[in-house]
Structures are given as structure tokens and as C-alpha cells.
Amino acid sequence: MLDTLRDRRTLISMIVVPLLLMPGLVVGMASLSLKLVQRAQQQVATIMILGAEHAPAAVAHIRQAKGFEVVPAASDYAQRISEKKLRAAVEFPTGFEQALASDQQPTVKLYHYAGEMRSQFAVRNLERLLNEYRDEVVAKRLASRQLSPDVLQPFDTAEENVAPPEKVGGSIFGGLIPYIIILLSLTGAMYPAIDLTAGEKERGTIETILASPVARSELVFGKFLTVMTASVATAILSLASLVATYMLTPKSFAQMGRGGASFQIAISGKGVAAVLLMILPVAVMFAAALLAIALLARSFKEAQSYISPLTIVVVLPAVASLLPGIELDARLAFIPILNVSLVSKEILTGTYHWNYIGLIFASSCIYAAAALFIAVRAFQRESVLFRT
Amino acid sequence: MIETQNLTKIFYDRKRGQIRAVDGVNFRCQPGRIFGLLGANGAGKTTCLRLLATILQPTEGTARVAGFDICKQPEQVRANVGFMATTTALYPRLTAREIVEYFGRLNGLDPRRLRQRIDELFTTFAIHEFADRRCDKLSTGMQQKVSVARTLIHDPPVMIFDEPTVGLDVMTARTIMDFIRSCRDRGKTVIFSTHVMVEAEKLCDTIAIIHEGKILAEGTLAELRARYARQDLEDIFVHVVEGTA
């Protein structure tokens, strides 16, 4: 174990990466996304107005708004929009003003590049301006019929969030935190597991240790414990740095939330502790499985090529739990990793379905035990230990 | 004391089929004598020694090492054996002292006895000056000494060496050979393998010639010389091996 700690690469991945990466990621991503959005909003959008002669009042309204640069009308607007040279184009049909005056419903077309952020902004702005103009027209019509504008607004709606803050916070972070912890406990275990198996073969120390009066199973256990320690340490350090980041810069978290609205995030310590407990058997399973697989390799590089695809296999169920609409039920409770992600999300929102929790914990422990068993058997097979 | 009984190890290779690396081997090594396994590469020497050290398990037959059965009591065998091979490397990131301490603890030595042993060994092999340097920073000669100390830490009655001087320069090779002799002089049972005739001639009390997994001849140098009417060990070896071709 001392040997493992000494290894600089292990130290880096175990301590430095979590400590620096976590705050870096959170703050970096939050501020970056905010900046990009702000910039896009503020940029002056180039638009084109077609048929301006048919709707002078509407066009005047648009022109007086800031943030638009109106270019002269041309017929190649579609092409320019797709090439992003033009953000949007608005077209007033012939006889627009006359149609308005006679209470008909002319259609104003808005041409845009679907999905392209700046084009969307331009369109939204245009719509807003057109809506303002529309309101003006409506107000005039009502006035001419001696009606007040309130006729159009019979009642008001008001939104009120009744879910307690920890449920709101938990729902957003409930999916994220277990996913991060699971992923970290895997990556934290990867390097030591490889080093203690294929690395030993590469260094030539495997025979040295096999010639000592230690039982094979004890040998596996020692390695397993070392890997577990590394994995747990990585997860805890990352979690701690995440918490520290949150406490120091709460705003960056709020900005990452949906819609950019800021709200209180209160995640209970009990919830986090429960989640950690649920993830523990998963970490055991990872450590044992990694050891067994890495043992098959003859060298470090070979081991890495076996293990790298595992990251994807693990990430998929964890990510799946973030998808909306995937709720915990009896079937999903047996799928490893996915079940823990889902139940952790629930726990962090304060929901404790004890029957599921028990079931999932038990099944995780069974998977962990199976993995350990396989690892011990692998260490007893000469063909695996001495692959040539 | 080492006693083998029809010791056999069969490997299964997909292309070559069954490989009898060690085939019905019977010999006996007495304490206070150096037993040499002489054979070409691939003759089965390493496999045989690994079987005795319980690193591999025999397919058929068994052996008794230091009074314990290698199949039924492998851990006790290992507690009484010191195994040293070119493949028994050191942990590069640990210091010399840490390695020897670690293996001492693995062998169940209590702290006081361990410290005593380390002191003795480090003095005997002049390891004190680089005792706290990491192993990857030591020269080959220094590493060999640490390897020897590691092998001896639990003072085992049986010593197994697999091609101990391969790749070593003359001076280091001599140190190892002196060390092997001193083990014998202290009454240990010593078995080692080599394909260097000169080494076998100089060191061994009993020589066994192994070829394709089988022991073809066994005896002291004098006995072999008389039996095959040749003086040079190399000539004897070639005659014995080719005699079965």
C-alpha cells in the first residue's frame, strides 16, 4: 500500500485531480455558459424586412428598437439566413395595413434558422416587438368600440413553488451527485487496480510475493483493500471539494440550475451519508471487478485497454438515471449501478422508500460479493497469474 | 530436506497440445549439501523449482519440502523456503529496508526479532549504506544484495535458487556463489538450477541432469565422471542428453 501511495501517478489522480477539477468544473462551466448566453443576447442582430412598404407603422416600431441592424430587402434572404449572415427576416404581406383596418387577420412571416441560438434570439426579439405593436393595435380597436383593454384579461395567474427547498435542490443535484460519486469511485480504483496486478507482472514482483507464506486469498484481500482505500479516498476528496466549492461560491451552482433562477439548495447531511452508504457496495464491486480484469493482462498498457471500455459501461446506467421519466420500480431495482443512482436521487430529495432501499442495498452487496469471489478465483488460477 | 515423488507438471497449449514440463521427477536433497539441477533452456528446471516453492501446483505426484507436503501444506512450505530467481524482482518504489521489513512481517516475524534479523543481514551484506534508498535507484549489485536479504529474512532451512547468476558480472556472481556456499555451510538444504557448467562444477555436491522434464542422470561429480568415463561436465552433459535423442 505504501508502494501505491508513493506512485506519483496515483497521487495525482487521487488527490490533485479531484481537488482541482471539481471547483474548476463547476465555476468554469457556470461562468462560461452565462457569458455565452449574455453575449448572444446582447449582440446586434442583422435582420431584413420584406414588404416594408405594406406596413409602415409596424416597421417604424421595429426600427425604433435597439439591437437590430436592418439591411436592405433582397430576395436571397433564405440563403443568407442559413449561412448565418442574416439572423432573421420578417415579411409583411401585401395590403397588410388595409387588412388590419378591416379586421382581417393577415399573417406576418418570420424567417429564421431553427436551432441556431442567435437566430432564435433575433426571432424572439422580433416577436416581442410585433407583439408590442399588436397590443397597440388591439388597444386602438377596443378604444374605437368604447371597450377597455381589461376586457381581454378576465383573470390573472400566479405561480407558487410549494416543494420544500431540499426537494427542489435534491431533484436537480440528486441525479448529479450520485453519478459523480459512482464515476469517481471507479476512476479512483482503476489505476491502483492495474498497478497491483498487471503492474506487478510487468515489474516482476508477482513471483516474489507468491513465494511468501501468505495465502492466495489473503493476497487478493490486501490488494482489494488498497484499491478500496484509493477509490473511497478519491470519492470523498472529490465530494469534499465539491461541497467546499458550493460553500464558497454558491452563485455558480445557482447559475447552473435550470433557467438560471437562483434558489436555496438545502441538501441534508443525512441524505448524503445515506447515499454514500448505498454506493459503498458498488465501490466494492468495482474494486474486485477491476482487480480480476486487470489480472488478465500481461502489462500495464494491456490492462488499460481492457479497462477503459468499462468506464463507458458504468457511465451509461449512471447517466440514464438523470433522464427524465426514469423512475425507480421493482424491475429497475435489480440493475446494478442504475438502481443505486435512482435511489440516491430519491434520498437526496428526502424521499425514503425503505423497501426499495433495502432491496437495492442487498442486491448491491450480492453483486459485490460475487465480484470478490471472482477476483479470488482469478488469483488462484496459474494460467491467469503467469500468462505468457 | 527436499524429497520429490513422481513430480509432474503438464501444461496445455492450444497449438502444441500437452506439454510435460516436469515428468515424473524423483530426487532427494540432503541438508548441508548443494543440489544442482543442470539443464538446457526449456528443460524444466524453472518449473521444477517453482513447484517446490509452491508457486505452481503439480498436476501429478508431490514433494515434501522441510517436512511439509507441497500440495497439502503450501503455506508451511513457503514459510520454510527462501526462493530467489531472476523473476523475483524488488518493488522499485520501496526502499531496501522497507522491502525487507515487509517480507519479514509477511513471514510473521515479531518486530523485535525482525529488527535483529535486519541488522544482522544488513551488516553481513553491507546494505546499511543504501538501506533507505528506493530500489529503483540501486545498482544491479545492490539490488541483488537486497534480494538476498529479502530471501533470508526468515532464516529458512531450505533455499531454492533459479539461475541465480544469470546476467550478473563476475564480481556479483562470485558474491552470490559465496553466499550459496555459506547457506550450505550453515546446514541449509540448497537446490539451484543453472545451465552454466562451470558454476555446477564449482558449487554442487550433487548434480542432476534434467532434459525434457525428466531426470536423466544424478550423482556427485566424481560418480558422474566414473559412470560416463568423461572428465568434463559439459562432455558428460552432452553425452547424457544426446544419448536419449
Please sum up the structure shown.
By secondary structure, chain A is mostly helical. Chain A is built from 16 helices and 4 strands.
Task: Explain what this protein looks like in three dimensions.
The complex is a heterodimer of chains A (388) and B (245). With 388 residues, chain A is mainly alpha-helical. Chain A folds into 2 domains: 44-149, abc type-2 transporter like fold, CATH 3.40.1710; 164-385, no CATH class. Helices cover 68% and strands 4% of the residues of chain A. Chain A contains 16 helices and 4 strands. Chain A has helices at residues 2-6, 8-42, 56-64, 77-82, 96-101, 117-144, 165-196, 198-203, 206-210, 216-248, 250-256, 269-295, 300-320, 338-348, 354-380, 382-385; strands spanning 45-50, 68-71, 88-91, 109-111. In chain A, α10 (216-248) packs across α15. The relative contact order of chain A is 0.11. Residues 1-23 and 253-264 of chain A have low confidence and may be disordered. Chain B is of the alpha/beta class and 245 residues long. Chain B has a domain at 1-80 and 189-245: P-loop containing nucleotide triphosphate hydrolases (Rossmann fold), CATH 3.40.50.300. In chain B, 38% of the residues lie in helices and 26% in strands. Chain B has helices spanning 45-52, 74-79, 96-106, 111-124, 140-152, 170-185, 197-203, 221-228, 233-243; strands at 2-13, 17-25, 28-29, 34-38, 60-65, 68-69, 81-85, 158-162, 189-194, 206-211, 214-219. A 6-stranded mixed sheet of chain B has the order 7-8-9-4-10-11, sandwiched between helices. In chain B, strands 1, 2, 3, 5 and 6 form a 5-stranded antiparallel sheet that branches. Chain B starts with a strand and ends with a helix. Chain A binds chain B through residues 2-3, 6-7, 203-205, 207-208, 210-215, 382, 386, and chain B through 50, 53-57, 75-76, 78-79, 81, 83, 85, 87-94, 98, 103, 106-108, 150.
Query: What does the overall shape of chain A look like?
Result: elongated
Number of DSSP-assigned strands of chain A:
4
Distance from first to last alpha carbon of chain A: 27 Å
Structural class of chain B: alpha/beta
Gyration radius of chain A, in Å: 31 Å
CATH architecture name of the domain at 1-80 and 189-245 in chain B = 3-Layer(aba) Sandwich
Largest interface: A-B, 17 and 27 residues
Q: What is the average per-residue confidence, as pLDDT of chain A, rounded to a whole number?
A: 72
What is the mean predicted local confidence, pLDDT of chain B?
Answer: 85
